[in-house]
Amino acid sequence: MVTETLRHPTRRSLLAQAALLSLGASAWESQAARPPPLAQPQVLTAWNVGGQSWAGVWTPGAQPSGIALPARAHQLLLVPGSRGQAQQALVLARRPGEYLMRMDVRRGRALQWHTMEDDRYLGGHAALSASGKTFFTTETDGETGQGLIAERDLQSLEKLREFPSGGIGPHALLLEPAGTLLVANGGILNLPETGRRKLNVGRMEPNLTRLDAATGAVLAQYRLTDSFLSLRHLAIAPNGTVAVALQAEHADPVARTRAPAMALLEGEQLRTVPWDAATGAPPAWDGYAGDVCCTADRFWISAPHAGWLASWTHQGHDLQSQALPGAGALAANGGRWMVGGDEAALLYRDSAPQPRRYGVHMPWDNHAALLHFS
Fold it and tell me: If you average pLDDT over residues 216-239, what whole number do you get?
């Protein structure tokens, strides 16, 4: 209980703690904020050092430039700034999250902090609205456990409205080309007083819910037959097919080793992608898929516990895998994408047969976004 309290500070302490952390980190930031060589990839991500969490820019061979955080971050979402402003991003606290922050990416400065409203806790993810002036967050009502979607102002971070997410434990969400919202309701209930403890594993009802972004109305829901497969992260292909990273919650460890890593939503059908019938999953699979991304012709899934990447075509065929201890955060940008592991990051290019390898001294935490390539 003491550990969980430290990981999830009280609402009143969050902004004060963030301000103190920023002051204490100013000297470190001034040394770390030297512009990296343009020939190197730049990645927006979060990391942890000695119990302190950070968000900022990672570049090979350079000390990362970042902002001290009051608790671990989850997603970092690139967003448009006002005219004349530098690149900005939203930093979302890990579930059950209690803070939001808008940052200047290049300068490594916090522009706006926001503590969550009473009885509202972040699910760790956000998506921009079609206008680009607001954004949607996945949240939980701390009193009822109901999953919610909140629409917030991009500059002030204040909540404008909220509506039900269609399930429990909403996590990732995306704005579809048609303007609808697709939400992965993971089915797992977490509350701040119990930290990361899963309160309803035996009663999970995970689903994908499609919502009308304007009214919040539920347009469709999709479920797998196995209710112990939590739907977590999402990626969408140019043809509209959506990949869903899965995390198995079966009590039986053998069942977890047989669980799929990914599901596909194709039109109105949600189905799991089976492992190769002859070989099964790659070694050490424990049912836990981390991140997911879409490249030109494939979906990629990271397996941080098992230590590898797996990929399939957009139709769920031609399984391929690549070993990488601690493989976690994925970041795609056109024909180039990266994955971060415990000690290395791999850069893939569509035109190159093999990835380029970079050393990583501070592993990326959860998610990442590519900023630059030359």
Answer: 96
DSSP tag of 194 = G
Nearest to 174 by CA among 78, 242, 122: 242
Q: Can you tell me the distance from the alpha carbon of 298 to that of 13, in angstroms, rounded to the nearest whole number? A: 44
Closest CA to 73 of 51, 53, 56, 44: 53
Q: Are strands 218-222 and 207-211 parallel, antiparallel or unpaired?
A: antiparallel
Which range, of 141-145, 200-204, 245-249, 323-327, averages the lowest pLDDT?
200-204
Distance CA 189, CA 204 (A): 9
| CA angle 301–355–59, rounded 5-degree value | 90
Residue 81, token pair as written in the block? 């700034």
| Pair of tokens at residue 22 | 């920023």
Which DSSP symbol is given to 191? Answer: -
Phi, psi of 348 (to 5 degrees): -105, 140
- Side chain identity at residue 14, one-letter code: L
- Of the candidates 36, 133, 135, 41, which has an alpha carbon nearest to the alpha carbon of residue 91? 135
Give the helix/strand (H/E) hosting 144: none
Distance CA 228, CA 300 (A): 22
CA distance 349 to 170: 33
Q: Is the pLDDT reported for residue 29 higher than 60?
A: no
* Contact by Cβ (8 Å): 295, 335: yes
Tens digits of residue pLDDT in 166-211 = 999 999 999 999 999 999 999 887 666 656 666 566 677 899 999 9
pTM above 0.85, yes or no: yes
- For residue 314, give both structure tokens: 């957009």
Any idea what DSSP says for residue 320? E
| Cα(295)–Cα(313) distance, integer angstroms | 10
Which of 61, 35, 47, 64 minimizes the C-alpha distance to 358? 61
- What mean pLDDT is predicted for residues 126-148? 95
CATH number assigned to the domain with residue range 1-31+41-223, chosen from the 4 options 2.130.10.10, 3.40.50.10490, 3.30.420.40, 1.20.272.10: 2.130.10.10
Helix, strand or coil for residue 339? Answer: strand
